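Sequence decides. Our protein:
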Amino acid sequence: MCASTHPRKGKTTMTDTSPPDMPPDLNALESLPEAQRERITETAKASQALASAPPMRLTQKGDTLQIGFVGVQPEVATVLQMADMGTADSDFHQGLVRQIACLGSQKVSVDSVASNFVMAVIRSVAPRDGLEAMLATQMGAIHAATMMLARRFNQVDTIAQQDAAERALNKLARTFAMQMEALKRYRTSGQQKVTVEHVTVNAGGQAIVGAVALPARASI
């Protein structure tokens, strides 16, 4: 069980795990067209250059949800996760990462991919503080819920089910758009910037920059 939803029974612990051996298939790469090989090389270099936290590996043992990390010690992974979240507050990190881990906890089964996806969303947003990290987390969760509703929408059997799924899907999609707008407003402090690139003034004319009030036209 998840600690955030079952505080009396659920537990969340952190452990260390090792990465699986996944050697590249060089023969498969050589058989690809040159353009595709170049894209693969560029993407691989960019991926290796990332300094983000390693993926989490969730395991459920009884009523305890354990958080492990791939390839590094938990202490190292914790600091990298804090950097990804844009925070230096260990209490904030501990609370948020457990909430993210709970997104991958489904009763007796776990889905590390779901939690790691939310962490990837946070990294893509590149939060500058805790508030942006929380909003990015919610955006990842809302997107996941939206896609789940989209899948259910394609599997409905009745008109009532279709209407219910459609309403829920629309609400989630609108919520995500509102979250994007909220992040934009927060980062710009709600200010709008207007830049005048080029102004042409003819001889005898005068340039006016700003709001211009025109007199009301007389009705005929």
Observations:
- The longest strand covers residues 11-17.
- The two ends are 74 Å apart (CA to CA).
